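User: Predict the full complex structure for these chains.
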Amino acid sequence: MKYSLVLLTLLSVGSFAAGVPVQKMQSTQTIATPTETTINVVCPHQGTKAKEVVAKKAPQHRESAVLAEDKPLLISVVGQGVAPVNTTSPAQAYALAKRAAVADAYRLIAEKVKGVRVDGQDLIKNMMVKRSTVRTSVDAMVRNANVVETTFKEGLCEVEMEIKLSHSQFAQ
Amino acid sequence: MRSRDGNKTFSLSVCSIILFHSLALCADEYLISYRYLVRDAQLYKETLSISHAMQKCTGVSTNSLILQTNNNKNLKQIISLKNEKFIAYVHKLGLNVKHREKTSNFQNTSTTILTLKTTCFKVDFNDNFAKITALKTAE
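Assistant: Here is the predicted structure of the two-chain assembly.
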């Protein structure tokens, strides 16, 4: 009876001793699962990285703003105009060509600052382009533009015009 | 009781004050509009309209232009004599740009219209020069 009891205790101790590594294995498995979760955690980590990227991009976007607060923008254009054929004198031809060139320069400034509306239309009949039309339009108000240089050569007048834009002009 | 001489001087002083103020304050006001059309890079039409303002203008004085007059009080004549200077001044004030361009089957036509909308100008005539000031209204 005593021996049987001793045997039982030895067996239980043995089984206990054998069970400890099993538990350890289980614990390692549980540790392993967190490692797997850490892999899953990588996604949010990547997400944070993405946020960082976005956060980095935002100041870059600010840096690439066209009109900085402290730095005025100088826009320079060259407008072209032609003198009419039936002019009475070269002076008249020059004056008229210059007007046309100034208008062209104003248009170019308006295009650069405000933008152009473009409409296109293609007419296709029997698999052939019959008519292709592109219409562009600009509507703007231009103030404080300065003529820098005027040249007149062989009936063509070129006017270099510039305008200075500052951030305060657009601040509302 | 007032004396007759006292009343006379009083009425004279009132009249002189009214006359002085009417001369000093009521500078001539003109309505001016300018428009020119450029078609296919050639000046097509130019219009400068000048007329007396029929009623008092309201607005804040902006930058001004001084033109030589040689005792001439006719603004149209003064401006026509110094046309280039006045047009440059108008450009400085600001012009509305309206541009239309059409390219059909690789043939291009364009029209550009520059307009100064009807603006009130205060004109002070002096002996040898006229001071033209644009009155800017609040938009």
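Chain A has three helices and five strands.
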